[in-house]
Amino acid sequence: EIVMTQSPATLSVSPGERATLSCRASQSVSSNLAWYQQKPGQALRLLIYGASTRATGIPARFSGSGSGTEFTLTISSLQSEDFAVYYCQQYNNWLTFGGGTKVEIK
Amino acid sequence: EVQLLESGGGLVQPGGSLRLSCAASGFTFSNYAMSWVRQAPGKGLEWVSHISGSGGSTYYADSVKGRFTISRDNSKNTLYLQMNSLTAEDTAVYYCAKGAVTTDWRYFDCWGQGTLVTVSS
């Protein structure tokens, strides 16, 4: 099983600042990586697939990068609605998710 | 608007059974593979099971293989998860999720709100 490790577990950021979230795979997943956003009481939302392709309707402030074992989700200027938990998911070898990064208001 | 609505969760004793349902709307249900993903309290996400659009192909996580059965009724736009021999480790919120594209089921562009399954005596 491919283990996905996200860091940090919690990220404290002020509105308008940049947030950088990391996701590491225990072995290469090529570019078969997705990012999701989860807010309390709301359905999960697909942000990024193919490591760097924004899903339909996702604002340009969200960007994904990386390949192989190292991936990054960047939120260029945090808005109030972006404070949430973010998960990465590999789909190169079955499906596994990272433990999540909580982005909180600083 | 694409919508998924789970139901059927609740409290069940260890060793018991439960059937979850997921009602889909806003898209051509039979064209898309569907999955169940669960989240134990305070934990991350775990993929549980997949079914192809036709229902002819199914996959399971090792943790549920032999105990859970995924199925679908395309005439009713509904996805199911039959869960047997439940243990405390199965306690979680169960989400149904839609494969993002018809050619790749492995990531999900729509999720339900989830239904809570609690296994306890």
Q: How many DSSP-defined strands of chain B?
A: 11
Let me know the largest β-sheet of chain A: 7 strands, mixed
Q: What is the helical fraction of chain B, as a range of percent? A: under 10%
- N- and C-termini, Cα separation of chain B: 40 Å
- Indicate the low-confidence ranges of chain B by residue numbers: none
Backbone CA Rg of chain A: 13 Å
Low-pLDDT segments of chain A = none
Oligomer: heterodimer
Strand content of chain A: over 45%
**What string gives the helices and strands of chain B in order?**
EEEEEEEEEEE
Q: Can you count the helices of chain B? A: 0
Query: What value does the average pLDDT of chain A take?
Result: 96
Strand content of chain B: over 45%
Biggest β-sheet of chain B: count, sense, barrel?
A: 7 strands, mixed
Topology pattern of chain A, helix = H, strand = E: EEEEEEEEEEE
| Largest two-chain interface | A-B, 22 and 22 residues
Separation of the first and last Cα atoms of chain A: 35 Å
In short:
The complex is a heterodimer of chains A (106) and B (121). Chain A has 106 residues and is mainly beta.
